[in-house]
Amino acid sequence: MLNKKSVSDINVKGKKVLVRCDFNVPIKDGTVTDDNRIVGALPTIKYLLKNDSKVILCSHLGRPKGEFNMKYTLAPVAAKLSDYLGIPVVLAKDIIGEDAKKKAAALKNGEVLLLENVRFHAEEEKNDPTFAKELASLAEIYVNDAFGTAHRAHASTAGVADYLPAVCGFLIQKEIDIMGKALNDPDRPFVAILGGAKVADKLKVIENLLGKVDTLIIGGGMAYTFLAAQEKGIGKSMLDAEKVDYCKKMLADAKEKGVKLLLPVDTIVGKAFPDPIDAEITVHTVCTCEIPADEMGLDIGEKSEALFADAIKGAKTVVWNGPMGVFENPVLAKGTIAVAKALAESNAVTIVGGGDSAAAVEQLGFADKITHISTGGGASLEFLEGLELPGISCLNNK
Ligand code: AMP
Prior knowledge:
Layout: E1 16-20, E2 27-28, E3 31-32, H1 36-50, E4 54-58, H2 75-85, E5 89-91, H3 98-106, E6 112-114, H4 122-126, H5 129-136, E7 141-144, E8 166-168, H6 170-184, E9 190-194, H7 203-210, E10 215-218, H8 223-229, H9 244-257, E11 260-262, E12 266-270, E13 284-287, E14 296-300, H10 302-313, E15 317-321, H11 334-345, E16 349-352, H12 356-363, E17 372-373, H13 377-384, H14 390-393
Parallel strand pairs: 1-4, 1-7, 4-6, 5-6, 7-8, 9-10, 9-15, 10-11, 15-16, 16-17
Antiparallel strand pairs: 2-3, 12-13, 12-14
Helix pairs in contact: 1-2, 7-9, 8-9, 10-11
């Protein structure tokens, strides 16, 4: 359980509350095209409004590289928020400038102000203390509810906590409670599924999970380095040559710990990586014991789908992060879809890490059949690594 104070543990009535949200949403032609992260922030904002706070919201959007650039304005987010809250959401023209200060000072109880994109200042990502102090001076309380950036120590995600009472919002609380329970006190069997491109990106996740799960399933590009570690020929499949020894060690560790480590038993192969990624491609399925020397594995095959689905079916807790194949190409998306479907059909506590796997689950319309879809890709991965997230460790203890 999260040992940090939350917004419901302190008196917020009549107080100016600075809330760091993750409003880094996709925008096309001035309109928000996926508002999941905005919806995720609503419980905290509504709670503060109901409790007569003066709410000052802030977030980053995209990568404006430390300069005011209206291509990255939060104006479309203000409009969307205003629709959801049913009250005006005033947008300040700056972050710590005259306009933000004037508008923050004029706020009345139950009103909402949104500051402009915090990354219009280079000091944000540098966690500059002067900038953090100026930002903090707008408010009396700091609430961090931006799980998607909780793995970053920036001024608005961590620095401000040096100058104000600092607590978490309901979104961060929910993310940590659900994922923390799965990692530290899971209902068993506990099955984790990892996919995605490289072993190198998931080294610490694999190590940490091996100490906790009953079954670890590995698919995606990273599976081929594990197959190579078992001395199987992998043809032209993706290989992290430097990580073969690491994979050997993980296979041995799994055996020693009594963890079942499942790798694909068959794979869909093609002659070359599709270029562009959604180009037409001719493929066929082979056993992972006989991948042809001139072909590469681009998705798991049907037997692997069934093997993985069977493990998921017997689980009480399932955590999934990363696609099973080059899912951007419809011909190579079947394995990822099969895993998403197995999670949706399972009665277990199912948790999907952010990023590609979360997008897959949402696109397929399975989102409401999953216990928890994390709003943070990088942050949820670091959480699975067992790391302390700076945006959470900076908050006041209970
Ligand atoms: P990650 O960012 O590590 O989660 O990796 C996601 C990427 O891995 C996606 O863009 C997939 O296309 C890619 N990927 C998945 N399976 C394979 C594979 N067998 N070979 C090459 N790339 C893959």
